[in-house]
């Protein structure tokens, strides 16, 4: 089945060298450009919470890199070819094109609702993408790595992949989709993956940061050591796809097609579609962010394909875990799905983004429960951060006409809150660099906790009443707390951009000024004497759960009933 070739594949390894020290050295080294990608989401069904989670995380990373003044290219998009798409379209009574248009637009709408700041949205039905795929295919073919052969095996329609029988469950069920695989025999084109086994082993040995977290690297190394098999890169039975060059009877396998979207997305609309132009526009990618279920495609198939074409490898593939709900896998059959559109409309983008990035240690599986969600959001965003800002601005309005008495840097040297904030800012920076998003959230929240402890300890409300120097001390304390809030708004902006903008606006800044912030603005001393704050308005409403809402409603009805005047008779009226 394998056709040997004497052609030697040349490829660039320099793109992976910066990852040799693991996550930390990868994200702190390199040039001014930072290219990151989400998967191109399959449009057989509308967006789900898993795809939303990946994209929220990618957006937080992109926003942090922009704060570091990197030239960020954040790529997302939709994978629109393959058997499942044609089947889903037929089931809905539409054409594949119509189906893809509707679902692709649903992704764009959801990303807007979630404040996703992507730079490129690629659809694999885009003509420029098709041109890049065909050119890539031809280059791999010319390198002697594509051959034709018959193949018979067990095929998972949902994965769109042939499976080894040893990897299947009872009754040949796919371990991911829990559905029986079907026996198929096809005359297809194959990619000589086995030819690149040693080179892949060398890449992972020399660059252990290429696959993260480290336990995902172990998984990939295990797959490779067990021996790589050539895989089919065309389908004779699928019409909805890109035709194989020089063979209109076959279409290119959906994964061989979709992975090239990371490259074709780099093209500008005005540019001629060519592989070289795309590569010169930002490749290699700094980070592929994916779910662990598609790790094999990104950490084994994709690097080998790039090697064959003589193209540099991405710098890192990061495989995160799955989401569950109340400890159970989500699924329509269980009736426990979490629809992202309804979810964000109910609670708002900041709450959704914060919960999943704070609750889930990035890389591991994570669980959602509404009770835990409401408790965390109320405690962290509404109380710790929101209430601290609101009561501080309230005191400033009451005693200082909402005007800062001093520069935030004046008399702050040696101040315990300033020292604490500076240490926590540095700590948060390191967590963001290491893709430790949950720890970054927790660290920024510690600034809020420190601010609350400080204002409670200083008790400025009491000092204001004493007048004289005590009044001046209280006025300075408010400036110090508000400076901490300014820093929180910047440090938390990758996670909760909307909330951060509201904080910044309350501190008297414009949206234009907020959009221009960089990480170095977290340095203590931004607020100036005479700066006028906005009128205190709650920046984050507390969420009421069902029990609280029922209790509040009952109390309101009882009070209304007690206070209601006796009805007047028609004569009295």
Automatic annotation (TrEMBL):
Keyword Aminoacyl-tRNA synthetase: yes
Region described as Disordered: 548-573
InterPro entries in UniProt: aa-tRNA-synth_Ia (IPR002300), Anticodon_Met (IPR041872), Met-tRNA_synth (IPR014758), Met-tRNA_synth_2 (IPR023457), Methionyl/Leucyl_tRNA_Synth (IPR015413), MetRS_core (IPR033911), Rossmann-like_a/b/a_fold (IPR014729), tRNAsynth_Ia_anticodon-bd (IPR009080)
Biased composition (Basic and acidic residues): 559-573
EC number: 6.1.1.10
CDD domains assigned: Anticodon_Ia_Met, MetRS_core
SUPFAM superfamilies: Anticodon-binding domain of a subclass of class I aminoacyl-tRNA synthetases, Nucleotidylyl transferase
Coiled-coil region list: none
Keywords from the UniProt entry: Aminoacyl-tRNA synthetase, ATP-binding, Ligase, Nucleotide-binding, Protein biosynthesis
Methionyl/Leucyl tRNA synthetase domain span: 166-393
Domain Methionyl-tRNA synthetase anticodon-binding, chain residue ranges per copy: 412-551
Pfam families referenced in this protein's UniProt entry, alphabetically: Anticodon_3, tRNA-synt_1, tRNA-synt_1g
GO biological process, one term: methionyl-tRNA aminoacylation
Broadest EC class assigned to this enzyme: ligase
Domain of life of the organism encoding this protein: Eukaryota
GO CC term (a single one): chloroplast stroma
Keyword set includes Transmembrane: no
Molecular function GO terms recorded: ATP binding; methionine-tRNA ligase activity
Aminoacyl-tRNA synthetase class Ia domain mapped to chain residues: 30-85
Catalytic activity: tRNA(Met) + L-methionine + ATP = L-methionyl-tRNA(Met) + AMP + diphosphate
Family: Belongs to the class-I aminoacyl-tRNA synthetase family.
UniProt-recorded name of the protein: methionine--tRNA ligase
Source organism (scientific name): Anisodus tanguticus
Record lineage: Eukaryota, Viridiplantae, Streptophyta, Embryophyta, Tracheophyta
């Amino acid at each position: 089945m394998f056709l040997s070739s004497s052609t030697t594949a040349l490829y660039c390894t320099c793109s992976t060298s910066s990852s040799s020290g693991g996550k930390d050295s990868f994200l702190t080294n390199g040039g001014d450009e930072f290219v990151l990608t989400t998967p191109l989401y399959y449009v057989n069904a509308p967006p789900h919470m898993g795809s939303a989670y990946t994209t929220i995380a990618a957006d937080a990373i992109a926003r942090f890199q922009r704060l570091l003044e990197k030239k960020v290219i954040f790529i997302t998009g939709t994978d629109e070819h393959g058997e499942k798409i044609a089947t889903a379209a037929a089931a809905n009574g539409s054409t594949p094109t119509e189906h893809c248009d509707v679902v692709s637009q649903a992704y764009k709408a959801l990303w807007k609702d979630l404040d996703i700041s992507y730079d490129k949205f690629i659809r694999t039905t885009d003509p420029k993408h098709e041109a890049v795929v065909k050119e890539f295919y031809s280059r791999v073919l010319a390198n002697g790595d594509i051959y034709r052969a018959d193949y018979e095996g067990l095929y998972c329609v949902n994965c769109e992949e042939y499976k080894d029988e040893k990897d299947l469950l009872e009754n040949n069920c796919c371990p991911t989709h829990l559905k029986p695989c079907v026996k198929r025999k096809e005359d297809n084109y194959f990619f000589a993956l086995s030819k690149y086994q040693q080179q892949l082993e060398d890449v992972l040995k020399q660059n252990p940061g290429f696959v993260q977290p480290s336990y995902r690297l172990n998984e990939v190394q295990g797959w490779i050591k067990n021996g790589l098999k050539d895989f089919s890169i065309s389908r004779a039975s699928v019409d909805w796809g890109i035709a194989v060059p020089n063979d209109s009877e076959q279409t290119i396998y959906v994964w061989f097609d979709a992975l090239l979207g990371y490259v074709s997305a780099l093209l500008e609309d005005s540019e001629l579609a060519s592989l070289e132009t795309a590569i010169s526009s930002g490749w290699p990618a700094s980070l592929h962010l994916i779910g662990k279920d598609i790790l094999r495609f990104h950490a084994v198939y994709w690097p080998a394909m790039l090697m064959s074409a003589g193209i540099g490898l991405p710098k890192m593939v990061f495989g995160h875990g799955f989401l569950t709900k109340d400890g159970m896998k989500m699924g329509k059959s269980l009736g426990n799905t979490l629809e992202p559109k309804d979810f964000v409309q109910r609670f708002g983008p900041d709450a959704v983004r914060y919960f999943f990035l704070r609750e889930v240690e990035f890389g591991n599986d994570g669980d959602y429960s509404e009770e835990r969600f409401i408790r965390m959001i109320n405690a962290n965003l509404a109380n710790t951060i929101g209430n601290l800002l609101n009561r501080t601005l309230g005191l400033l309005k009451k005693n200082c006409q909402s005007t800062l008495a001093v520069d935030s840097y004046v008399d702050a040297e040696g101040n315990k809150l300033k020292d604490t904030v500076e240490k926590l800012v540095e700590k948060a920076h390191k967590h963001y660099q290491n893709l430790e998003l949950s720890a970054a959230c927790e660290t920024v929240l510690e600034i809020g906790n420190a601010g609350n402890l400080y204002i409670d300890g200083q008790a400025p409300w009491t000092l204001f009443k004493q007048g004289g120097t005590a009044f001046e001390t209280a006025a300075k304390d408010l400036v110090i707390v508000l400076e901490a809030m300014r820093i929180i708004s910047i440090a938390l902006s990758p996670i909760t951009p909307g909330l951060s903008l509201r904080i910044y606006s309350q501190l008297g800044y414009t949206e234009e000024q907020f959009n221009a912030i960089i990480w170095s603005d977290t340095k203590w001393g931004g607020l100036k004497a005479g700066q006028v704050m906005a009128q205190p308005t709650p920046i984050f409403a507390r969420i009421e759960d069902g029990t609280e809402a029922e209790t509040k409603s009952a109390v309101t009805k009882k009070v209304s009933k007690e206070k209601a005047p006796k009805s007047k008779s028609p004569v009295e009226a």
